[in-house]
C-alpha cells in the first residue's frame, strides 16, 4: 500500500516537474523570440536613414519635424509651427528617409512607415490581403512572432484617404511595438510631442495628435460606418472630448467633415479595452 502511495506521489511530482520545465522553456522561448524580433526591427529600421534635401539641409530621425537648414526651402516647405495652416497641401522636393524599394524587396505587404519622435515607434506598416490579423503574430518577414508587427486591416485603404484609419500594435512589456503609446498618458509628454509621421511611397503625412485615451474593445471600423456624416461627426466629437477618465486632449484643433484621422490602437496596461492615440492629418507632402 505504501509503495502504491509512493508511486502516485512520485507520478504527481514528475507531472508538476514536467509542467514547470515546460513553462520555463516556453518563457525562455518567448524571450528569445521577442529579442529576435526586436533585433530584426532594429535591422530593418536601418532603412530609416539620413538624407539630404535639394537645398542641402540635413533631414534625420533626430529632427523629423524640419530641417537643420532653412525652415522654409525653395519649394515652399514650412516649419512645424506652420503645419496647421497647410492642411492637405502637397509640396514637392521633400526628402524621405525611407527606402521602400528595399523594404518591399523583403516583404511586399509593407506599404508605409510610422515614426513618433522620442519613442520606440519607428516601424514599417503592413497590410495582408488574405488575413486581416496575420501580423498580429507574424513579423515583417512573415515568420511567426509573438510581438507581431504594426498593421492595418483591409477595411482601410492603403492610400490614407479613409476618414478614419486604424493602426494596430501590441503593448509589449519590453517597450516594443505600440507600448510607447502609453507615454502619451503623461500630460507633459503629450503636450511636448504633438506629431506622428507616416511615410509612404512618394509621400510624407504629418498628423497632429488630438487626444490619447482609454477606450473599449469594439472594432472601430466594423462598429462605426464613417461614411455616415453623423457617425463621423460623433467620432470627431469624441476624439476632441473622449469619454474616458484617463485622457489627454490638445486644445485648439478644429475637426470637420474633411478631416482625415488616424487611430493608433494598443492594449491597456491592465484590464480589458484599448488605449488610443488619435491624430488628424495636417500636412500631406509629395516626396521625390
Question: Which helices and strands appear, and what pairs or packs with what?
Answer:
Elements: H1 2-44, E1 51-52, E2 58-59, H2 100-106, E3 110-115, E4 122-126, E5 150-151, E6 164-168, H3 187-192, E7 195-200, E8 203-215, H4 220-223, H5 229-240, E9 247-249, E10 261-267, E11 274-286
Parallel strand pairs: 4-5, 6-10
Antiparallel strand pairs: 1-2, 3-4, 3-7, 7-8, 8-9, 8-11, 10-11
CATH architectural grouping: Beta Barrel
At the fourth level of CATH, the homologous superfamily is: Sortase
Number of helices: 5
Gap from first CA to last CA: 84 Å
Largest sheet: 9 strands, mixed
Radius of gyration: 22 Å
Counting structural domains, the number is: 1
Mean pLDDT: 79
Note the main attributes of this structure.
alpha+beta, two-stranded antiparallel sheet, Sortase, Chain: A, 25% helix, 9-stranded mixed beta sheet, globular
In short:
The chain has 288 residues and is of the alpha+beta class. It is 25% helix and 22% strand.
Task: Characterise this structure.
- With about 290 residues, the protein is an alpha+beta fold.
- It has one domain (about 40-285): Sortase (Sortase, Chain: A, Beta Barrel).
- The chain has five helices and eleven strands.
- The strands form two sheets. Strands 3, 4, 5, 6, 7, 8, 9, 10 and 11 form a nine-stranded mixed β-sheet that branches. A two-stranded antiparallel sheet has the order 1-2.
- The protein is globular and about 80 Å long.
- The model is unreliable at about 25, about 30-35 and about 45-95 (pLDDT under 50).
Amino acid at each position: 500500500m505504501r509503495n502504491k502511495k509512493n508511486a502516485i506521489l512520485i507520478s504527481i511530482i514528475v507531472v508538476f516537474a514536467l509542467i514547470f520545465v515546460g513553462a520555463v522553456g516556453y518563457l525562455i522561448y518567448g524571450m528569445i523570440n521577442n529579442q529576435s524580433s526586436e533585433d530584426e526591427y532594429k535591422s530593418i529600421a536601418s532603412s530609416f536613414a539620413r538624407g539630404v534635401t535639394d537645398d542641402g539641409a540635413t533631414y534625420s530621425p533626430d529632427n523629423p519635424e524640419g530641417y537643420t537648414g532653412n525652415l522654409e526651402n525653395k519649394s515652399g516647405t514650412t516649419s512645424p509651427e506652420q503645419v496647421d495652416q497647410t492642411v492637405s497641401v502637397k509640396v514637392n522636393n521633400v526628402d524621405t528617409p525611407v527606402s521602400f524599394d528595399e523594404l518591399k524587396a523583403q516583404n511586399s505587404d509593407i506599404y508605409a512607415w510610422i515614426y513618433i519622435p522620442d519613442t520606440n515607434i519607428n516601424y514599417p506598416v503592413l497590410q495582408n490581403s488574405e488575413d486581416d490579423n496575420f501580423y498580429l503574430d507574424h513579423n515583417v518577414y512573415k515568420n511567426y512572432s509573438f510581438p507581431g508587427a504594426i498593421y492595418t486591416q483591409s477595411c482601410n485603404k492603403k492610400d490614407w484617404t479613409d476618414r478614419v484609419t486604424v493602426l494596430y500594435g501590441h503593448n509589449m512589456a519590453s517597450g516594443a511595438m505600440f507600448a510607447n503609446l502609453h507615454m502619451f498618458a503623461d500630460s507633459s509628454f503629450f503636450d511636448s510631442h504633438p506629431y506622428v509621421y507616416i511615410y509612404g511611397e512618394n509621400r510624407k503625412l504629418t498628423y497632429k495628435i488630438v487626444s490619447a485615451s482609454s477606450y473599449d474593445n469594439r472594432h472601430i471600423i466594423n462598429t462605426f460606418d464613417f461614411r455616415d456624416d453623423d457617425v463621423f461627426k460623433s467620432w470627431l466629437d469624441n476624439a476632441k472630448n473622449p469619454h474616458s477618465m484617463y485622457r489627454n486632449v490638445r486644445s485648439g484643433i478644429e475637426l470637420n467633415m474633411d478631416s482625415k484621422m488616424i487611430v493608433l490602437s494598443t492594449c491597456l496596461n491592465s484590464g480589458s479595452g484599448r488605449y488610443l492615440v488619435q491624430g488628424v492629418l495636417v500636412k500631406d507632402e509629395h516626396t521625390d
